[in-house]
Each structure stands twice: as structure tokens, then as C-alpha cells.
Fold this protein.
Amino acid sequence: MGVWAFSGGATFGQVPFERDQFQTAQGPLEITFIGHGTLMFSWNDRVIHIDPVGQYADYSKLPKADLILITHEHGDHLDPKAIEQILKPTTSIVLNPNSAAKLGKGKAIKNGESIEVLGMSIRAVPAYNTTAGRDRYHPRGRDNGYVLQFPGLSVY
């Protein structure tokens, strides 16, 4: 299931963000679109940040993360300052190997690998450019997309 349509809004003390809600077998999943590739999921009192970048939000005003997912090491997807603002002692970070090397922490997983976090399965899938001449920016096999398996709902 692709999640691309958003409705409603949430502000968190800043410009309103688009958001949408989906039902899982264990309660609603709220997805907030922050900007570019940056999302925030809220589910069962847990917060998941995907590619948090300070260019798109003031992370000091957003909820702290239980889980952070990083797709790749480019600055519009990996922002150490934004990550520091949403970390708590128990935050898990899952990222591709290049991002782990750059950040210096977290659990690196490669395309095709899976990990269990917060009671859900997270599978890294290939994310790459298919446009001619742009594959050098996002080559096949380096960057991750993530499939999160919530009870009764899969989200990419």
C-alpha cells in the first residue's frame, strides 16, 4: 500500500503539516508529512521519524522519537542536528550503512534485510533513481526504502 494522499493538518507550534490516518489492527496510525522525504508516524503512543531534516521543521517542537529511520546519507535526508533534537535514551535508529558511518550510531541494514523494532518488522527495500543520468545520485543497492509492518497494515 502506498501512502501518498494526506488530509488534515497538525502544527506542533509551526506551519501546519499535512497528515492522514490509517487503521491498524492495534489502533490508528497517523502519518504527518513534514517535507520532501521527511515524515512522522504516530502509533500506539510511539513516534517514528523518517529522514528528519531541520530545513523542513523545528525539531525542538516535535515529539521525541522512539524510532528514527534514515534512507540515505544526503543532507536532505540525514541531519545530525535534527536527530539530536528528537533523541531520547531509548530511541532506536535504523539506517543504511553509509548513513551509519556518517552518523556514527544506529543499526545499519542493507537492502533486503529486516529488523524487529517496537514490535513491528521493518524491511529495507532498494530505493534508487531510474531517470537516465541521475543514477549516480541514488545508485541501485545503496539507499533504503522501508516497509513497516504494523498489525494488519503494511506501509512503504
